[in-house]
Fold this sequence. Notes:
Order of helices and strands: EEHEEEEEEEEEEEHEHHEEEEEEHH
Largest sheet: 7 strands, antiparallel
CATH superfamily of the largest domain: Naphthalene 1,2-dioxygenase Alpha Subunit, Chain A, domain 1
CATH architecture of the largest domain: Alpha-Beta Complex
Radius of gyration: 22 Å
Distance between the termini: 22 Å
CATH class of the largest domain: Alpha Beta
Strand order of the largest sheet: 14-20-19-18-17-16-15
Amino acid sequence: MTAIDPDQKISVVELPRDCTFDASDFAIIARYWYPIAGSAEVTTAPLSATLLDEPLVVYRAGEQIVVANDICPHRGVPLSAGTGDGQSVACAYHGIRYGAGGACISVPAHPTAKIPARLTLRTYPAVERYGLIWTCLRPDPQHVADPSTAPIPPMPGWDEPGYQQVTCPAFDVAAFAGRQVEGFLDVAHFGFVHVDTFGDPDNAEVPDYSPVTTDSGFEVDYWSTVANYPRGAKIDEPEFKWLRHFEAHLPFTATLVVHFPNGGRLCIMNAASPVSARHTRMFAPIAKNFDIDQPEQDIFDFNSRIFEEDRAIVEIQKPENLPLDPRIEVNIAADRSSVAYRRGLRSLGLTQFFTA
């Protein structure tokens, strides 16, 4: 679907079918890179994914990852309903096969005929990083020519020696990406939302902190005595000052580095991929330099409990969209990161994402 300027009667921006975003907002956020799948999910079979209401198919063509519109240009059947062999993907309807770059390589009904030039997939650049597949719907031409230059947010600890790196399974949230990211940045909810995992209801006061603007959003150092150990774990440093360093990368990615005693660092990326204005798929690579032989499943299980606690809150917030008008919700001093985040989104030119 293409949005039309009613005054000029010209095409403004091509929108996905049934797009839930305002056209002007879509034009802005579609320029950014988002993860759409875990690397381990993309095997020989074509994988279905959705980004900003655009249905996509992801498949491997040898060493290349292909991301394309999930539709066969022959008769409109989703390619994710087809089959793959690790080199190409075949449509379930007529067996038409597409390989590297989305190019058609076989038409079984006419095996010796010339393949029509238009029988090719609309593809998007793909980058495999932090155990995730990243793409962009409206990329800069430079990043199409060389996807390795894509402005994907940096992940602390991922490429450093002595760190254990894991990528948690994707986590779905029935809420807008901005609400989910704001919850990740929030420091006042630990003692209320995370009481079963690491929060302390008797330690809910939020010490003063000050976000600092960066080229990609903002960063902040938050010091407190709230530990990051699982509830019930033995704590030998009751007076230890915990440093949590947040970095927000607009519009929907943030990282957190928790500084543990004895030089320990736990690094978490919260990459909120907007499936639609009402549905988010959250990806979370994790790197840490302590207890590096911990079974991956234990890491997944503990963090899944934290994600579930957050989801229970985010999914019931009203309005569902993140209000960018500062008059709509009341702020307190503990909300400095939230205020900085919303200010950053406004600075991108965003207005509202959908009407609740």
